[in-house]
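User: Before I run my own analysis I want an independent prediction to cross-check against. Here's the chain; please return only the structure tokens and, at the end, one sentence I can use as a sanity check.
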Amino acid sequence: MPTMLGSLISAGVVAATGAAAYQAMAPSGQWYGATFTSGPRGSKRIALTYDDGPNDPHTYRLLEMLEKRGARATFFLIGRYVQQRPEIVREVVKAGHAIGNHTFTHPNLAVASVVQNKLQIKECQRAILEATGEAPRLFRPPFGGRRPATLKIARSLGLEPVMWNITSYDWQVPPAEKIVKTCMRQMRGGDVMLMHDGSHDAFGADRAQTVLATGMLLERYQAQGYEFVTVPQMAGMVVRPRSSLVG
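Assistant: Structure tokens:
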């Protein structure tokens, strides 16, 4: 009996550990704090989000595509790239898109220390503030990785954590048609779509297929009456620009 009880306890610990690890990375996981993942199911709104920029030339090409179609999107920016090319970030803001904090160097915050969590988020805030004159109000953890301290730190800095409910897998650089099909299989309306205009590995990543896929998605779903909006528009957030850091 003790052996069986010990086995059951061990199995329970393993299951709990696995569940905790899942919640630390899953876009929909809410154990470690509330995050925005999608809008109302079945709505005629879609929020395109792009991680790992700014990136030349593909962020510019996305801006041209979005402007041509009258669409708005949300860009989650890596601080070190913001410092490298602040003029791209200013163009994103000027075009009416939302911007968010995606840390300074893109580590997995779920396994980083509390000190590193705070440093990564604050330094990205500072880089964006210096580039645009405004501190962002949105935050997305790299890889979706977070722990309770991650979200607590983000909120202390006035940031709203944002995840997603559609994964495009565009970082694998498949053809645009495959990216579109992957997204369409998950579309329900009210979706927040994860895409990439850059790469955390290096500046200058080729995101041409993502740009093409974006155009195809816009054409298809606008023809069906869908509106492409920013995350704040989707969530009904009142996002007031701030000209200083908090926390």
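Sanity check: The CA atoms of residues 3 and 9 lie 10 Å apart.
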